[in-house]
Design brief:
single chain, mainly alpha, 7 helices, 0% strand, membrane, transmembrane helix, transmembrane
């Protein structure tokens, strides 16, 4: 068995930790950019007629649905940060619990909105189903991980893979558009945004999963 000198191992571990932090920050920053982009669209940025007509039809319902969407996107952006949380003014377990609480508030609120206001039973059941699966995931966690950390890690994996698949579909549809401008719009606004975010989420989930497995 090859033994790694302690100084060399500490240097490698420090480099790995810094790389993990950078990827985590990048994933969170990309998620926040996603929140800002959607908030800009939701408040009527770009002069979308569809947004203006929805707000004019029922402003309070539109504000409610917009707030829930932004809350969900914000919670999703915090998942990578909760995995690598390095700050001392708030412990990492508490940060993970806060992130999960925001996600559950957003999902439950979205489920109620879809059921009561939008009257979309399928979307409501899907949202409640996601919440239930999240609870079930907590019961199959590894013994060396806390419930909060395990749930955040699984959520990050799931969001990342989902974003990659969703972004890839935009890339595919970009090649099917009738004009170059439409194809470029699909590729940049959908393909790049979702795919890059998904890759960053999967990367930080993988790195944090591997962290601590080096045997000295």
């Amino acid at each position: 068995m090859i033994e790694i000198p302690k100084k060399q191992a500490d240097t490698a571990s420090l480099g790995e930790s810094r790389w993990t932090l950078r990827v985590g920050y990048a994933a969170c920053a990309w998620g926040i950019w996603f929140v800002i982009l959607h908030a800009y669209v939701f408040v009527g940025g770009g002069g979308s007629f569809n947004v203006q007509s929805q707000f004019a039809r029922n402003p309070w319902i539109y504000v409610l649905s917009t707030s829930l969407s932004i809350l969900l996107f914000t919670a999703a952006a915090l998942f990578p940060l909760a995995l690598i949380w390095p700050f001392r003014w708030l412990s990492q377990p508490r940060m993970q619990i806060i992130t999960l609480a925001l996600a559950y508030i957003g999902m439950i609120g979205f489920a109620v909105y879809e059921l009561v206001f939008a009257q979309e039973l399928g979307a409501s059941l899907f949202s409640f189903g996601v919440c239930l699966i999240g609870v079930l995931v907590a019961f199959v966690r590894p013994h060396n991980l806390s419930v909060a950390h395990w749930m955040v890690l699984v959520a990050t994996w799931t969001i990342g893979i989902g974003m990659i698949l969703y972004g890839s579909s935009y890339v595919w549809f970009a090649f099917l558009q009738s004009s170059f401008e439409k194809g470029l719009g699909y590729f940049l606004l959908g393909g790049v945004n979702f795919t890059v975010e998904g890759i960053l989420f999967v990367a930080i989930a993988y790195l944090t999963s591997q962290r601590g497995r080096i045997r000295l």
